[in-house]
Design a protein that fits this description.
This protein is α/β, with parallel strands linked by helices and 1199 residues long. The protein has four domains: 19-168 and 204-242, Glutamine Phosphoribosylpyrophosphate, subunit 1, domain 1; 301-309 and 323-366 and 375-607, Alpha-Beta Barrel (TIM Barrel), CATH 3.20.20; 633-1012, Aldolase class I (TIM Barrel), CATH 3.20.20; 1053-1189, 3 Solenoid (Pectate Lyase C-like). Helices cover 33% and strands 15% of the residues. The strands form twelve sheets. The chain has an eight-stranded parallel beta sheet. Strands 1-2-3-7-8 form a five-stranded antiparallel beta sheet. Helix 5 (130-142) crosses helix 7 and helix 37 (1057-1069) runs parallel beside helix 38. The longest helix has 22 residues, at 529-550. The protein is globular.
């Protein structure tokens, strides 16, 4: 555990002139998502790794499962090496174990083993030679990829090499020198040499390998190396002989395709189902209720998927109860929340970067990976995981090539009672293990027999238990697991099944229901069975790709079995049997409860009552008598009355009704305050005027909401001393320049999101906070979305875009692929506005505390933790309902980990997500929050009625619309928002008085003032264990300063080259002289060059800047990252040398010229001169580079 400088002082032999080596491999880690420890120090036995393996859990599980089919001619007692992956290692350590195992026990040469584990994006690359493609295809049959952003360096003493992941998400630059030295690093400028000594400057491309053979003393190029490996065995012949496809099985099968019979609709076409229609269609089939369908499921999710081949959009976030609190028998899928990439690795853009995505998977028995042969190809290749009704019949009856299929029923007799669930799970596990031993190649788990007398075990429980049982029995690699289920239908359901080991899924009930809807005239007659299947599976493919991409995973083969979920509210017994290794931090429902709910669903479907109407519990939209929602009509009406009329009576009613909803829906509702024996008089408590300064409004962009609504929030927050947030849509200069102090429309918080809309140097310079939006509560891992019909001329101008064109931000910030990159953007923004507080917005998920501590180490001064239930102007329902965790878990974890690392005093922590009342605020403070964000509540105060039409531009109260006629209906006023905030602050003061607390700061982190709610009438809530949340951080590390922001982050801005630059250029900035010429040397430690100079220009002249060529700077050397970021008009920089990543990021009118050193004699057009992601988010200006630019050049430019 050393910094680079300490290494030389500790290992003194490194300083000796006699110490000599022909190769060196060094890795300096930024320890973010693990605590530093000796065993994690790099290099490991064979590799050093800069990146993340996102699929780690699946890779490790499958490596364990392979123990049942592996044997080696080179190692007698192979079992002595098990488990191959030692427990409790980091992702790099696990990768190292498997790489070493393949090389030592499989006698693969090192480059081939690396190629097998980290393949290129071969599936969609039409330019790839056939031999190489066939090698990768064969390797995919032998092993799933280890997927994630990675620069992998490796050596065995003879070879030393590096490979970049398939997406090229890490920087890798190398020089070849004339004196036969090669230097590769993630930056240029790390090795000093005369420019005349450089023979080549290049970079590693995505998926490519660089190899040096130190015996032959030569570099082996990627093309030569991989073709040699590809041709080393007859992979193409093996594939032709052994690979099985569905076409082949269909041809060999006796199953006849269903004829596309003409369908006549009864009367006219219908847009959606009414409850009356539903009754008629489903007449006698009550399975629809048994499998938990509702009218919302059909109208809001399935019909759009079948009609448009896409998931439906929704808006306003998720305010329904967590599954562990719901009394409406949620399916087990609802207990799982998707995890997503933030900070330590990026999500992927699954549509713009489609070339790296693949849903193709080999399924069926896997052979011994240690002995390459044709047998590895003897698997069934599925292009995607959704199986049609016909193909399922083909697979069930298949005997082709000696394969056979075992069908296992996952239902049990009604008479067995709820105890039947666990018995059935054990039976299914035993039958599956026996089938694997008996030589079956495929197992079909089926709930088709569910009906009046048979109760289905949830397919998710049956699958999870079977998958893990087969892994433990070392039988999993001998069989493919296929599901025939009536239960799964949504994208989230299918993703959870894939994540827990399914190889293929036939959601038979969806297809049967679609046929009935067609006959009833709800779906067009032209939609034949084939078209229904294709449309649904295409929508599902898009949905699965999006969910995989949220976690930064490109291939379904790696996502399968990777368990990238957190369970909220499942007991340890359920996790251990069905979902081993999945985090479930608050305990929760047991098998007994799950069985009881399965029985209740069965009883509701098949009780003697004539079930005329399909239930609609209102999971998405509030319904009388249905699921509770935080935003119910009574609370909305009370809040609006309170705010408009300044009525404390109405506010008290709002508080009561909201607290009831919060008790029904949220984790915080399961807590209550511990009243003090020594309450204080309210007159002694901090005044409301101070408390409201801790409030901020949420990041709602001008675009998602109307200008009137956006400005009303800004004016209100400026009047009370809080902060409003621009959101990711920029802000017009007329709102932040020359404002009337009594009607100040300037948003104090300016957001910098992945689309970089409207981010100019003037925008940055005129802010109090600069907030980097890493994720959004309603849809973490996805970008913001503004439909084209909401993009008016005004909005387009603010965003530097084109009217009428939809604006979708990419899921990743293209300049943040790692924690080091985020630290760089934090530094860049601090340089672009030294007076702003730099904030990073994260979303709650397991591990967010460790990410937040990495963000604090990266010098952020403010961290927002958003809950999963935050609002949105437009998002798919999968994102709104199924991704992210409650902020209660995130705030508690973040506060605890920051205190543990003694970082809490450096950052201010903000909570947001459906925060409404003083109760919510005080709970958040007691768990560790300093500040509080409000979005939905202020919108309600301004008139929002929760129509959830934001994404349609039809908001009837003029808030979330750009329609000029509807905007006239906006009736919100700043005073209404101010009234609400002060009533809220007074409620908080009341709670503080009863808790015996005078100063708000004294609330923060006082978990001893919380306890579990005692009068809880919800039996499921009583099973939760909130002990983890209620741990007092100061008991873990006593004596630590926990006053957020009391210690300043040290950016070392006093050491910047810009200071000298500003001093020299000051006469030009002050208008005392027309221009100036400056000559300087630069090295790669000088980052964000000219950004602070540009800040001073922008503060004085705005985006107009200075006249062309006012400040001319000539440089020599290798420039550091973010060279000329956000550079103003009038500044002209010429660099003789080269530069690293992010040159000209956010360029705002300046001019950049970069050319190679004059003494270098290499061919400039074949040499790399600038790094990745140049000119990202640039809005104006010019750039001239003589040479090659690396990946993602000029993405997301506007202007």
């Amino acid at each position: 555990q050393f910094t680079s400088d300490q290494l030389w002082r500790y290992f003194t032999d490194l300083k000796s002139p006699d110490f000599d080596t022909y190769l060196a491999l060094v890795h300096t880690r930024f320890s973010t998502n693990t605590f530093p420890s000796w065993e994690r120090a790099h290099p490991l036995r064979m590799l050093a790794h800069n990146g993340e393996i996102n699929t780690l859990r699946g890779n490790v599980n499958l490596m364990k499962a392979r123990e049942g089919v592996m044997h080696s001619p080179y190692v007698k007692d192979l079992k002595s090496l098990y488990p191959v992956v030692e427990p409790n290692l980091s992702d790099s350590g696990s990768l190292d174990c498997v790489l070493e195992f393949l090389v030592m026990a499989g006698k693969r040469d090192l480059p081939e083993a690396v190629m097998t584990m980290v393949p290129e994006a071969w599936q969609n690359d039409r330019t790839m030679p056939d031999e190489k493609r066939d090698f990768y295809h064969w390797a995919a049959c032998a092993m799933e990829p280890w997927d994630g952003p990675a620069l992998l360096t490796f050596t065995d003493g003879r070879y030393i090499g590096a490979i970049l992941d398939r997406n090229g998400l890490r920087p890798s630059r190398f020089y070849v020198l004339k004196d036969n030295i090669m230097v590769m690093a993630s930056e240029v400028g790390v090795y000093d040499t005369d420019p005349a000594n450089v023979a080549l400057k290049s970079r590693l491309k995505p998926g490519r390998m660089l190899l040096v053979d130190t015996q032959e003393k030569r570099i082996i190029q990627d093309v030569e190396l991989k073709m040699r490996i590809a041709k080393s065995r007859p992979h193409s012949d093996w594939l032709k002989e052994e690979m099985i496809t569905m076409e082949e099985l269909r041809a060999a099968s006796s199953v006849v395709p269903e004829s596309p019979a003409a369908v006549v609709a009864n009367g006219e076409m219908k847009e959606e189902l009414t409850e009356h229609d539903m009754t008629r269609i489903w007449g006698g089939d009550r399975r629809i209720s048994l499998f938990g369908y509702s009218i919302e499921t059909i109208n809001m999710l399935l019909l759009p998927m079948i009609r448009t081949k896409k998931e439906a959009l929704g808006s306003m976030g998720n305010d329904a109860p967590l599954a562990c609190l719901s009394q409406f028998q949620p399916l087990p899928y609802e207990y799982f929340k998707q995890l997503f990439a933030q900070v330590t690795n990026p999500p992927i853009d699954p549509f713009r970067e489609k070339i790296v995505m693949s849903l193709m998977c080999p399924i069926g028995p896997e052979q011994n990976i240690l002995q390459p042969s044709a047998k590895q190809c003897h698997r069934l290749m599925l292009p995607q995981p959704i199986i049609s009704l016909r193909d399922l019949k083909v697979l069930k009856k298949n005997t082709h090539r000696g394969w056979k299929t075992k069908e296992i029923d996952v239902t049990f007799a009604k008479e067995e009672g709820p105890e039947g669930l666990e018995k059935t799970l054990n039976r299914v596990c035993d039958e599956a293990a026996q089938a694997a031993r008996d030589g079956y190649q495929l197992i079909v788990l089926s709930d088709r027999k569910a009906g009046a007398n048979r109760v289905p075990v949830s397919m998710l429980l049956a699958l999870g238990a079977t998958h893990h049982h087969l892994i433990e029995e070392r039988q999993r690699m001998k069989v493919g697991l296929i599901l025939e289920t009536g239960e799964a239908r949504e994208v989230h359901h299918v993703c959870v099944l894939l994540g827990y080991g399914a190889d293929g899924i036939c959601p038979f009930f969806v297809f049967e229901m679609a046929k009935s809807l067609r006959e009833e005239g709800v779906l067009e007659p032209a939609l034949t069975d084939e078209v229904l299947y294709k449309n649904y599976s295409e929508a599902m493919e898009r949905g699965i790709s999006k969910v995989m991409a949220k976690m930064g995973i490109s291939t379904l083969q790696s996502y399968k079995g990777a368990q990238i979920f957190e369970a909220v509210g499942l007991a340890e017994e359920v996790i251990n049997k069905c979902f081993k290794g999945t985090p479930s931090r608050i305990g929760g429902v047991t098998f007994k409860v799950l069985a009881k709910e399965a029985y209740e669903r069965h009883h509701l479907a098949y009780s003697d009552k004539d079930m005329l109407v399909l239930r609609n519990p209102g999971l998405y939209h509030w319904r009388q008598g249905g699921e509770k929602h935080i935003n119910d009509p009574v609370s909305l009406a009370n809040l609006q009355e309170a705010a408009v009329n300044k009525s404390t009576n109405a506010y008290d009613r709002f508080r009561e009704s909201t607290l009831d909803s919060v008790r029904d829906c949220t984790i915080r509702g399961q807590l209550e305050f511990v009243p003090s024996d020594n309450p204080v008089d309210i007159s002694e408590v901090e005044p409301a005027s101070e408390i409201v300064k801790r409030f901020a409004t949420g990041a709602m962009s001008f675009g998602s909401i109307s200008l009137e609504a956006h400005q009303t929030l800004a004016v209100a927050m400026n009047k009370v001393g809080g902060k409003s947030n621009t959101g990711e849509g920029g802000e017009n200069p007329d709102r932040y320049l020359n404002q009337d102090p009594d009607f100040n429309r300037r948003s104090a918080i300016k957001q910098v999101a992945s689309g970089r809309f409207g981010v100019t140097i003037s925008y940055l310079a005129n802010s109090d906070d600069l907030q980097i939006k890493m994720a959004q509560g309603a849809k973490p891992g996805e970008g913001g979305e503004l439909p084209g019909y909401k993009v008016t001329e005004d909005i387009a101008k603010t965003r530097h875009s084109v009217a009428g064109v939809g604006l979708i931000s990419p899921p990743p910030h293209h300049d943040i692929y790692s924690i080091e990159d985020l630290a760089e953007l934090i530094y860049d923004l601090k340089c672009a506005n030294p007076n702003a507080r730099i904030s990073v917005k994260l979303v709650s998920e397991v591990g967010v505390g460790v990410v937040a501590s990495g963000v604090a180490k990266g010098k952020a001064e403010h961290i927002v933790i958003s809950g999963h239930d935050g609002g949105t102007g437009a998002s798919s329902w999968t994102g709104i309902k199924s991704a992210g965790l409650p902020w209660e878990l995130g705030i508690a974890e973040t506060h605890q980990v920051l205190v543990l690392n003694n970082l809490r005093s450096r950052v201010i922590v903000q909570a947001d997500g459906q925060i409404r009342t003083g109760f919510d605020v005080v709970v958040a403070a007691l768990l560790g929050a300093d500040e509080f964000g409000f979005s939905t509540a202020p919108l309600i105060v301004m008139g929002c009625t929760m129509m959830r039409k934001c994404h349609l531009n039809t908001c009837p109260v003029g808030i979330a619309t750009q329609d000029p006629e509807l905007r006239k209906k906006f009736a919100g006023k700043p005073e209404h928002v101010i009234n609400y905030l002060f009533m809220l602050a007074e409620e908080i003061r009341g709670h503080m008085a009863s808790l015996g607390i005078r100063k708000f700061q004294d609330l923060i982190g006082r978990t001893d003032l919380l306890r579990t709610y005692e009068n809880n009438s919800n039996p499921k809530a009583k099973l939760l264990n909130l002990g983890l949340i209620l741990k007092n951080a100061l008991h873990m590390r006593p004596g630590v300063n926990i006053v957020g922001g009391s210690e300043r982050q040290d950016f070392q801005l006093e050491k910047r080259l810009d200071n000298k630059l500003i001093e020299l250029a000051q006469p030009v900035i002050d208008g005392k002289q027309p221009n100036i010429n400056i000559d300087m040397e630069i090295n790669n430690e000088c980052r964000a060059f000219a950004s602070t100079l540009s800040y001073h220009i922008a503060k004085k002249y705005g985006d107009e800047g200075l006249p062309d060529h006012s400040i001319n700077i000539n440089l020599k050397g290798s420039a550091g990252q973010s060279f000329c970021a956000f550079m103003s008009k009038g500044v002209h920089v010429t660099l003789e040398g080269d530069a690293n990543d992010y040159v000209g990021k956010g360029l705002s009118g300046g001019e950049i010229v970069i050319y190679p050193p004059k003494t270098s004699d290499f061919d400039t057009i074949t040499n790399v001169i600038v790094g990745n992601v140049c000119l990202y988010g640039a809005t104006s200006g010019k750039a001239f580079f003589r040479g090659i630019a690396a990946e993602r050049f000029s993405v997301r430019n506007s202007g």
